[in-house]
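Researcher: Quick one. two chains, 917 residues in total.
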Amino acid sequence: MNFKRKWFVKRQLCRMTMCIFILYCGSSIAASCLYISSYHAGYEWNDGIEEGIEKTLSGVCDLDKFYMDTKRNKSHEFAKKSALKAKSYIDKTNPDVIMACDDNASKYLIEPHYKDANRDFVFCGINWTAEEYGYPYSNATGMIEVAPIRPLLKVIKKMVKKVRQGVYFSADVLTEHKDFSRYKSQYAKKNVELTAVFVKTKEEWKAEFLKAQEADFIILNNNSGINDWDNEEMKKFVAEVKGTTLTVTNYDWMLSYAMLAMTKSAQEQGEWAGQVAKALLEGEKPSDIPVVANRRWNIFANAKLLDRAGYQLPSSIATKVVYKEM
Amino acid sequence: MKKIARRQGVYSIFFAIIIGMATTGSLVFITYNDSYEEAKGKNDIRAMMIKDDIVRKINAIDEVLYGIRALFDASNELGPDEYRLFSENLLARHPYVSTSLYLKKIDSKQRTAFEEDMQDNGYLNFSITEKKDDKFIVSSIKKHYFPLVYIEPFTPLNARYLGFNYLSNNLYRPAINQAIDSAKPSLSKNVSNGSYLIFMANYAGKRMPTTIEERRKTIVGLIALRIDVAKMIDFNFPYEITLKLESLENQKDIALFHQKQKIFSDRREVNNLEYQRIFKSDSGDFRLTIKMHLWWHELDMTLIIGSAVVGMLITFLLFFQVRSMLYSNNTLHYHNVEINNMVVDLALAKQEAEQSNRLKSEFLANMSHELRTPIHAMMGFCELGAISLDDWSHQKQLENFDEIKNSGDRLLNLINDLLDLSKLESNVVDYEFHEIDFLNIVNSAVKSLSPIIDKKHQQVNIQRFSCIIECDKGKIHQVIINFLSNAIKFSLNGRAIDLGMNYIEASSQQCAMLSFFVIDHGIGIPETELNSVFDKFIQSSKTKTKAGGTGLGLAICKEIIAGHKGKIWAENMPDGGSKFSFNLPVKQILT
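Model:
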């Protein structure tokens, strides 16, 4: 009896030791993933990407994070220093796969330090300007962030009976000029004439906005670059304009001045980055996974402006739209 | 008789067991058959349900294809996000549809513009591709292409197919061409492991083109669904089943799906069942073959075992019933024998009683005669003396008074015998045992009877030897007198009477005995009456009417010898006459 009990205890101890050993080995051999953000934690766009990555990679690898914080620190020098810190961190932690999101991570970290290097990268949130960073690389793939040019026109066409001409509002900066050319060519294919209004001040913007009330629709693009922009003043101005021309935008912060916003999904970027990272961990090569564009759009509505203009959303849009009080 | 009865019993039990076993077999067979039919019926229904489910799913695929085509028809340009939303819903509802694709028709002239447009829209390295050695390469120049533009679920691995010209692949080309020409769903060859692409053409314009030429001209794209046929069979089979789905259309007799599940390999199969169902759909004609095994555990074993148990119980009941009947017959037979024996005994008893009654009647008749005879003699001599006493001489008077006295003596003896027997039977006689020479008793008896012996000119031969014996002298004397007087009485005049004695040595069985006998030369005793002559009121049938007597003498002798713990008997001599003997123990042991 005693012998049996001793044998049982010994066997149980052996089993427990083996389990602990296996758990230890399992924990020590888990893959490691590093998320490098161009921005900082708490920034809405960054948090969306992070959420998507965490959701996809949960249970797949140990996720580490590094924030370059180039949103709050916009200088070129800071970005370079931050990229070096990120590189140092990468060398130190030696992750299996790195997800570097938004433009600055590609511009200051991947391109100068890791282009075609022997380390796999997944990028996301890069604007159409990706070619400026020398993409595609043999060791990197990811998702480009494109504006919903055609989907936006579809929404406009659902709201406005005859769509022939529109006005494109933006700050007078080089990037916006490039974006406009894309809009213009795409819309021209659909027989819609799009004219641009690039302004540098809010007063210019106001004056042109009043003139644009003759058009079938107005696209309010990025206001970054209009230095004297006053949110409250401009909101008040837009609310008092008597025109009923449909105003749309691709930026969620411009919804204060537009009736509808069709925006990109940060979660989609994060989810794709996570999925590609997972595929790379499973042995796929970055060069075998094509660079793709985002396809998921969020539609927000400024209920106040829509009501004032007397628009009613068609059912195909109403089912997807999220109303926001601005 | 007993052997025959026993054999009949064995046969009956054997027959009962055979009937019981046959009943058990019949019950088991009937319940097994019912259970088998029921299980088979269930499998028939199951096969029908499988077929219906597969038909429903194939029809659902067709409906999905038509639905997507309607979606494209309704929309001027279906965007990737709209396609995604629709496909997500579709994939969630139809798990056997693994992938949803849209192939856009691009003419060779449009190719460069198309590729640039895709690149402008974020697909940086997009180009129309084809496969070579299982790798994607830029497509060679073709008249037109069907590159993949939308694919759901949109995963990194699926994204590799973006731009892939499906028309360049032999696996899909026949199905694509058929889909375009027929305007109906068309199934590709097996892509891998029971996975197929089903194509549906999407045409430009609001009206469905009616001719092949028109269809080829107006085709703008192809909707395709990747079907995992294995996932169409989502039943949980609790046993082995083989399913084969074959397309009877363009890929003649090509098995779409062949699944074999074997879960309960340790179970024993009862039978194999095979079902074949042919059905039509827009995707073509199909033949579904279902092979199942009917397993023992599917049968209602409780019912079968229950029927076997009932059968066995019937067998046991029959066995015990027959056994009980046989036992009852035997008991009845035994009781019959008992009753018959009792009847015989009663008949004998009745006969004995009747004989006893008859003997008693005869005895009473004799007794009345014996009692009356001396009294009549005494009364006759007295009446005669009263009338003629004066005429009689003195001698004559003495003779007549002797006769009166003799008659009185006879009467007295008779009464004494009756009283003695009564005493002896009621055990009120006290025996006075004394040691005495037995020869003296014999001599005394012979002497007392010598006048009668002399009168009949008979001779008594005595085998003389002296023997001291412990007995009641008077009683034994009475017995010897009785034996001797009977011998004198039943022997003819002038014949000899033999008396003898023997001494029997003591042994482990008995003490020393003295044997005495008297042999006469009379007419003897019938063999059947040798024992009964010692009973009271019994006289030999040969002598009773001639010799007279009370019939009590030998009964008294028997009682006296019994009182001495001796034995008395009679036997016939071979040369005629009879021999009466008794044995007496030499020493009386008082108890």
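The two ends of chain A are 79 Å apart (CA to CA).
Researcher: Thanks, that's what I needed.
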